[in-house]
Amino acid sequence: MNEAFFDKKEYKPLDRVDGRLKVTGAAKYSAEYALPNMAYGVLVGSRIAKGTIKSIDSKAAERAPGVLAVISHLNVIKIPGYAARGVHPSEPPTGGQPLRVFYDNKVYSNDQPIAIVVATSLEKAQYGASLVKVQYDQQEHQTDFEANAKNAVIAAAAKKNPKSPTADYDRGQTDAFETAPFRIEAEYVLPTEMHNPMELQAITAHWEADDRLTIYDKVQGTKTTQKTFAKEWDVPEQNVKVIATFVGGAFGNGLHSWPHESAAIIAAKQVKRPVKVVLTREQMFTMVGYRPRTWQKIQMGAAKDGKLVAINHHSIGQTSTYEEFTETTLMQTRMMYASPNVSTRYRLLPLNVATPIWMRGPGEATGAFALESAMDEMAHAIGMDPIEFRLANYTETDPDKNMPWSTKYMRECYEEGKKRIGWENRKLKPGSVRDGEWLVGYGMGTGTFGANRGPATVKAELDLEGNLVMHCAITDIGPGTATAMVQVASNTTGIAPEKITFHLGSSEFPNAGLQGGSSTVNSVGPAVQAACNALKEQLITMAAAKSGPDFGAAKPDDIMFEKGEIQLSGKSSAKLKLSDLFKQNNIQKIEATQESKPSENGKKYSMNAFSMHFAMVHVHPFTGQVRVKKIVCCADAGTIVSPKTAESQMIGGATGGIGMALTEDAVMDHRFGRYVTKDFGDYHVPVHADVPDIDVYFVNKPDLLADPVGSKGLGEIAIIGVAPAIANAVFNATGKRVRHLPITPDKLLGL
Amino acid sequence: MDKYKSDIKPEKEDHHESRRDFLKTSSILTAIAVAPATVAKAAEYNLGEKISAAFETTPVNLTVNGVKKQLAVEPRSTLLDVLREQLDLTGTKKGCDYGQCGACTVHVNGQRVLSCLSLAVMQEGKQVTTIEGLAKGDELHPMQKAFIKHDGFQCGYCTPGQIMSGIACINEGHADSKEDIKEFMSGNICRCGAYPNIVKAIQEVKNGGQRS
């Protein structure tokens, strides 16, 4: 497309287009559709982590007032998708087979849904659920990561395909580390973390006919969810309607279909009424995925001049016994720095727990904690400034893929970040800066994520008053998708943003993938451009027929809309009133549906977004309390389409990184295989008082090799690298290296 | 609280009436308790809903967003669930049900209250303001405007609670400094991480001396 995408006119950053709905309480989330005759479902979870259900006594529950049904494997109706394939019809995250809820008497993890109580009110369903008595044949479970780490295995995908990102990888010599002049070797642990979006996972399931299902569901992909449940019930895809107009945060846990969704749909079928299921906060820890506990070991070798000699990076990530969940924990190690010798080993540890799922900055955020901590450790060992050390290993091409970068503006990020955080106040020697009684430290961490793009289709309609209305099945979990798409459409057409509407979040709309992997703006944005340009072409044809050769020779880029008129650039006389043109042609509106797909550039270029996070912390020498005083986030994410919402997205990522670094830790009691941290009182996410001013800098240079909008994606790089920036700042403040997150005060005692 | 300028006029409370109704209902409940089989039988015939509607509820009179409501609620129902499920006022959000996240914050008689920890039956005669009651027609409350201007949200789910808390925070006199705001807003969690922008919005409303 055109290089001048953003030069066409100056524009004021848009306020969120759905802002008014959100501040007035009018935005409807998936539990907020009041359907006639609706019933409420409450899930009963298993009390053991492994074994079989011996009996379920549901008599008392069934007799309780208002209870309509108690459904379990004992009385569930036949689910066609289960029987036909012998496996769950939904796609597993990366391997194995998703849990078939109520399929048999097997228990794979603690709090696995084993029954649903359906009643006429929420309270009655809750009370009914409390009356269900279950007896088990319990088997010995394994949930303790450390005790079982020796049982880690290579991923099935890696066994099948040696080019899989989780396969063993060696570049150069595998023993180069042994002879490096400077060597560090360290182990890093990231505990299990919970997505914990503020909105509880919820679904309202409504069978509008025997073979027609509508669900209001908290998901990140309406089309993928539609496919899943069409397969599960063996009905045509178009018979399943998935509505997710507003999603109250997700951070990855809406990327998979979960048992509670199937349970609600089953219940709605059995009681012949719409059924709403809202998980409890505790169930958010056990039923909808999490960032898997991951152990990592890095061996890093470098020369005196700061050139890396070797990096060996091993990791073990936790998964369930029925699904194999893998993530690209080690990719950043393979491509971020110019080390001639790199080896990575990725292993999985199946435990009697529920399946993990991608959580913001998946894999990369975990890997970056180890890699960027190790980079800081090595810089310290050599006696170099950590930024100088990274610059000494800066690479102008992707050393893993052996390809040029599509774009990479990291040097700009180093310079800007240094300036903004006040890096000159950092001392090489840890523990040497104080502010009153507080120790002061500075640290930084780098992040990267692939500029992934998928196919997307947008339908655009333009009416004679110049209103542009678009539709796409993409969801918005919070970043401001509709706002960004209105901006893209406005830049492409010249139509004022307030005359543009972007509808999303329904499987009824044209196809789009998941909102995940930082791929929305660069996938859907080009489809918006394409649809807008197709509208322009129709107008040019119409205008040429009525108004002569000026318009006949025009290309879509030549025309813009201003105040209801079509203008031909460079020819101020060539103007047409939109309404006249439409009336002359006797039409009310024109429409165009366009698909946009990734180009072949991915075969020639390594396309990635990059981030660099800087943190300044205070650490109290007696209590070990860490206060993050300032964060600077620099992002090389290509074109920043919607500056206001993009900045918020970066601030949000940094906030998530503060939680990762300092507070978030899902602690399991291995006697029961159940989390003891099961609410916000025990599992600490950052609150207002934990979050300082966050300064965001965007390089904002388009990457037109990546996609026509020039965007490389933002959601993941916003968090990748934040936790190590804070950990490195804590080291700089105290001289104490914490390699097991979170950095709680107990780990800093004795300073 | 005294700074809270509400246009809502309190209705004349009639405790006697409601107490009488309560006694009436509870005596029927007692009757049911000694004959549970009757109810069970009725439930089997799908009469459960009507039975419970008639016998298991307690009347409550309260004012929601300026509108007087005569409700029949179960004694165990929280104000949050009654707002969301019975009155279809879904702007008030459920985020934890334990009073730990603040998403369910509403104003009761002008003070911020966690509606998930408040039983609906205890709100007799009280004035409840939810997010739906802040705007005057099309004119948004200054805090709502400030949230839009400063982009004090992303997914929007914690937003109603943040706004209700933000208004209360100013009225309580806890918005004199950024540090104060952060401390007194820390009961309202935002997982998207819009905190700095929320603080900016509250500061602007506070400094603007606007109606709050």
From TrEMBL, chain A:
GO molecular-function terms, A-Z: iron ion binding; oxidoreductase activity
Location of the Aldehyde oxidase/xanthine dehydrogenase a/b hammerhead domain: 24-140
Pfam families named in the record: Ald_Xan_dh_C (PF01315), MoCoBD_1 (PF02738), MoCoBD_2 (PF20256)
InterPro entries named among the record's database cross-references: Ald_Oxase/Xan_DH_a/b, Ald_Oxase/Xan_DH_a/b_sf, Ald_Oxase/xanthine_DH-like, AldOxase/xan_DH_MoCoBD1, AldOxase/xan_DH_MoCoBD2, AldOxase/xan_DH_Mopterin-bd_sf
Protein name per UniProt: Xanthine dehydrogenase YagR molybdenum-binding subunit
Signal peptide coordinates: none
UniProtKB/TrEMBL annotation, chain B:
Region of interest called Disordered, as start-end residue ranges on this chain: 1-20
UniProt KW keywords: 2Fe-2S, Iron, Iron-sulfur, Metal-binding, Oxidoreductase
CDD domains linked to this entry: fer2
Entry-linked InterPro entries: 2Fe-2S-bd, 2Fe-2S-bd_dom_sf, 2Fe-2S_ferredoxin-like_sf, 2Fe-2S_ferredoxin-type, 2Fe2S_fd_BS, Aldehyde_Oxdr_Iron-Sulfur, Beta-grasp_dom_sf, TAT_signal
Start and end residues of each 2Fe-2S ferredoxin-type domain: 58-134
Name of protein: Xanthine dehydrogenase YagT iron-sulfur-binding subunit
GO molecular function: 2 iron, 2 sulfur cluster binding; metal ion binding; oxidoreductase activity, acting on the aldehyde or oxo group of donors
